[in-house]
Amino acid sequence: MKNTVLTFQQAKEKGEKLSMLTAYDYSTAKLVDEAGINSILVGDSLGNVILGYEDTISVTMEDMIHHSAAVARGAKEALVVCDMPFMSYQTSVYDGVVNAGRLMKEGRAGAVKLEGGQEVAPQIKAIVSAGIPVCAHLGLTPQSINVFGGHKVQGKTEAAAKKLIEDAKAVEEAGAFAVVLECVPAKLAQLVTQSLHIPTIGIGAGNVCDGQVLVYQDMLGMFSDFTPKFVRRFADIGSVMKEAFAAYDRAVKDGSFPGKEHEYAISDDVIEKLY
Ligand code: KIV
């Protein structure tokens, strides 16, 4: 069954957990979709894991549209949520609506995600009014990494925790259908989850959230630049890939690949006429 914003709302009401994973290309999206994951996030984490940047700041609208369209072609059931890149919505409500529209029209996303709380509530309201579902993102919001001074757990002081709760209520009030909570203490995430009618999707926010999201390269052991504490490795595909690449290298160099079974035939009559 196709996952929509209604799936998210109903899961919250029934107390059923929601699964979300990132994907950035057609083949991976197909696998994630076929595994029954509720939602695929075309995260701007593609800046790190696909494009090799240090952060998500340089990711462009064109990058997001390109990858979102590929994912959308592979996702039949999962709700495709596409990240709005840095400076595509912070600048104005108008920019936010225009760029969210491009992610849906050209990137074929079913929803967009943007980072921030009260300060982006007007953008959320306007984008939802234009017919585009919005997932909010609070806590450690990587586009603000330079303000935070690094990848740090958020909401640990009384003031910061109160602000996070207020922000969560503000994005819900503005019309967001879900909110990602990243790197937030589990007890605070529990409080936020209990205070909202929309589902919380945690990443480094404990298991009390209504759903979970991970970057797929992290959970498959395919990205070794850094591994956050909240990641569980569900498989070590990175090692499997490296071993397979090395086996291919050996087979090419010792002449055992390609074998007879990989060859295309031609009639000997034709070949003889060529000599
Ligand atoms: O870009 C991304 O992959 C994200 C997740 C970490 C939530 O925003």
Work out the count of structural domains: 2
Gross morphology is: elongated
Distance between the termini: 61 Å
Mean pLDDT: 97
Largest sheet: 8 strands, parallel, barrel
Residue share in helix: 40-55%
> How much of the sequence is in beta strands?
5-15%
**Which sequence of strands runs across the widest sheet?**
1-2-3-4-5-6-7-8
Distinct bound molecules: 3-methyl-2-oxobutanoic acid
CATH superfamily of the largest domain: Phosphoenolpyruvate-binding domains
Radius of gyration: 22 Å
Poorly predicted spans: none
SSE string, helices as H and strands as E: HEHEHHEHEHEHHEHEEHHH
Helix/strand class = alpha/beta
List keywords for this structure.
elongated, 2 domains, about 280 residues, 12 helices, single chain, 8-stranded parallel β-barrel, TIM Barrel, 8 strands, binds 3-methyl-2-oxobutanoic acid, alpha/beta
Per-chain topology:
Elements: H1 5-14, E1 18-22, H2 26-34, E2 39-42, H3 46-49, H4 61-74, E3 79-83, H5 93-105, E4 111-115, H6 121-129, E5 134-139, H7 145-148, H8 158-174, E6 178-182, H9 186-195, E7 200-203, E8 211-214, H10 216-219, H11 237-253, H12 268-273
Parallel strand pairs: 1-2, 1-8, 2-3, 3-4, 4-5, 5-6, 6-7, 7-8
This protein binds 3-methyl-2-oxobutanoic acid (KIV).
3-methyl-2-oxobutanoic acid binds next to strand 6.
